[in-house]
């Protein structure tokens, strides 16, 4: 009997790269001519994994979000890893918006991925292990086809395939 091969499906974000992108965006926010005197601020809470934007209007908040997004993309962070809440009105006609960084796969998404793997009708087994999913099969070709199928679907967050053995 051949040994089973497996890989893990995870969703992680390198917080050091997020911090570097935040530092670059904060620096650009203070230097850009069109945003210099607006009073827009950008904050990162590392322990919560969340961004907070305060701006005088929704337009300026979207500009700050675009700056942050461009810095994150340059650092190799997928923008779907950040879930932005709707802008909320704050004091003095200003706007507040928060964005949380998605770490790990939640139970609903894991069940959806597992169901999609079962729907492929291949001999592969998916098991949920905390905030990751382990897919195992006797055939490495089947695992390759599962990876290709999962890359083709959108689950609202970036997926990485690790521990392929």
What does this structure look like?
With 165 residues, the protein is α+β, with helices and mostly antiparallel strands. The protein contains 4 helices and 9 strands, in the order βαββαβββαββαβ. The protein has helices at residues 15-31, 58-74, 107-119, 140-152, and strands at 5-10, 41-45, 50-55, 82-84, 88-89, 95-101, 125-129, 132-137, 160-162. A hairpin with a 5-residue loop joins β5 (88-89) and β6. The longest helix has 17 residues, at 15-31. The chain is elongated and about 65 Å long.
What layout of secondary structure does this protein have?
Elements lengths: L4 E6 L4 H17 L9 E5 L4 E6 L2 H17 L7 E3 L3 E2 L5 E7 L5 H13 L5 E5 L2 E6 L2 H13 L7 E3 L3
Antiparallel strand pairs: 1-8, 1-9, 2-3, 3-6, 4-6, 5-6, 7-8
Helix pairs in contact: 1-2
């Amino acid at each position: 009997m051949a040994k089973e091969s497996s890989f893990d499906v995870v969703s992680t974000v390198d917080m050091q790269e997020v911090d570097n992108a935040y530092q670059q965006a904060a620096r650009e926010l203070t230097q850009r001519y069109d945003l210099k005197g607006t009073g827009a601020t950008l904050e990162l809470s590392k322990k919560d994994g969340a961004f907070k934007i305060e701006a005088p209007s929704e337009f300026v908040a979207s500009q700050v979000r675009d700056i942050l997004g461009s810095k994150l993309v340059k650092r190799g962070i997928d923008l779907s890893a950040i879930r932005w809440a709707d802008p909320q009105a704050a004091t003095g006609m200003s706007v507040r918006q928060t964005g949380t960084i998605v770490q790990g796969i939640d139970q609903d998404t894991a069940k959806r991925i597992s169901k999609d793997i079962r729907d492929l009708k291949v001999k592969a087994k998916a098991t949920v292990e905390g905030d990751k999913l382990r897919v195992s099969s006797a055939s490495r070709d089947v695992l390759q086809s599962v990876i290709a199928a999962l890359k083709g679907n959108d689950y609202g967050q970036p997926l990485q395939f690790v521990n392929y053995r």
